[in-house]
Design brief:
Protein name: ABC-type nitrate/sulfonate/bicarbonate transport system, periplasmic component
Pfam family, one: NMT1
InterPro entries: SsuA/THI5
Strand order of the largest sheet: 2-1-3-10-4
Distance between the termini: 131 Å
Keywords: Signal
Number of strands: 10
Number of helices: 14
């Protein structure tokens, strides 16, 4: 039987062929990616670059600890020196060990500095000039410990003496060669009608003056504080006159140039302790007086704290090494030349930089 195509079949075959042709004409599908595409680095065009992170800094290095050598200090029987004895923490708080010797006079202190027995000494204006005369170009002033109304002439409480004119021909005690002698000589020069030969002078250590006055072996004595205040407090004497208007009479801290050049740190800390001492006197004279009195007692002197308090409120204990002090020192040197005690005015050397550095040290604590 002959096969015949029917219309339905023809239509089906036609559709099937058309579908196959369309499928074959479509593009092949892209294969699935097997790896992430490489990132593209995009450079900004307008936005500013981010600031670079600051470089890390090293931790600050600690200041090296300075080993300070002990200082040998030649002091005197002064009110503030007793305070230093009574408050040793003033030196230790400054990080310094101090061998503190109290001499009876600046003459002894000068001899100790010249011989090398002490590193720093304290001396009145006249004895500081004498030190420069003895050691030309070898001494330097580094500070001041007191100035002003430091010297007084005392008589017994029941005495009728009221002036030096009343004492003519009498026995008068004084430590020869000290600032006490100089200030009396300057007073005589000022008034013009009193001579050194008008009196019988007894050379006494300052610590023996009160006993000599009490015993009657002398009619008066001239000394520096605290001896006058002690005599008053004990009822052993009364002030006949004082000399604050005659001369400034500063008391100075001296050392050798050699020591100053090789021990700057020690000097700075030493002066820092003195600054603390001066501040204690200024801010609390009562406590300062009590400590000084205790120290004086330990040294064998009976002193009422009220005597020290009187001194601490009357005398200037500032350390300032200023033009006024240097001018007073020059004036003293000229006076010593006029009296023949020295041949010529020595070249004075001072350096305030140690004190300025000490102030910064104290302020930085």
């Amino acid at each position: 039987m002959k096969f015949q195509y029917k219309p339905v079949y023809l239509l089906f075959v036609s559709v099937l062929l058309t579908s196959l042709l369309l499928t074959a004409c479509q593009p092949a599908a892209a294969p699935a990616p097997t790896a992430q595409p490489a990132p593209v680095e995009v450079q900004p065009t307008d936005a500013p670059a981010a600031p670079a992170a600051p470089a890390a800094t090293e931790a600050p290095t600690a200041e090296p600890v300075v080993e300070l050598s002990p200082v040998r200090y030649g002091g005197q029987l002064y009110p503030e020196e007793y305070l230093l004895k009574g408050a040793p923490a003033l030196f230790s708080d400054a990080g310094l060990q101090v061998e503190h010797t109290l001499f009876s006079s600046a003459t002894e202190g000068n001899q100790a500095l010249i011989s090398g027995a002490v590193d720093i000494n304290v001396a009145s204006d006249s004895k500081t000039v004498a030190l420069f005369s003895a050691m030309p170009d070898q001494v330097v002033i580094i500070g001041v410990v007191q100035r002003g109304d430091r010297y007084s002439t005392l008589v017994r409480p029941d005495s009728s003496y009221t002036s030096w004119y009343d004492l003519k021909g009498k026995q008068v005690g004084i430590r020869m060669g000290t600032g006490a002698e100089q200030v009396v000589r300057r007073y005589f020069e000022k008034v013009g009608d009193l001579k050194w030969e008008d009196f019988q002078w007894v050379n006494l250590k300052v610590e023996d003056s009160i006993a000599a006055l009490t015993s009657g072996s002398i009619e008066a004595f001239t000394a520096w504080e605290p001896t006058p205040a002690i005599a008053e407090a004990q009822g052993a004497g009364k002030v006949m006159m004082s000399y604050g208007d005659i001369a400034l009479t500063p008391v100075l801290l001296n050392t050798t140039v050699k020591y100053a050049e090789s021990h700057r740190a020690e000097i700075v800390h030493f002066l820092a302790a003195h600054l603390a001492k001066a501040e204690m006197i200024k801010s609390d004279p009562k406590k300062s007086a009590e400590l000084a009195a205790q120290a004086a007692s330990a040294q064998g002197a009976t002193v009422d704290p009220a005597a020290f308090e009187k001194i601490f409120t009357r005398v200037d204990f500032s350390l300032d090494l200023d033009e006024t002090v240097i001018a007073a020192l020059q004036d003293t040197a000229n006076f010593l030349v006029s009296t023949g005690e020295i041949k010529e005015v020595p070249t004075l050397k001072w350096d305030a930089s140690y004190l300025e550095e000490a102030r910064k040290l104290v302020e930085g604590k």
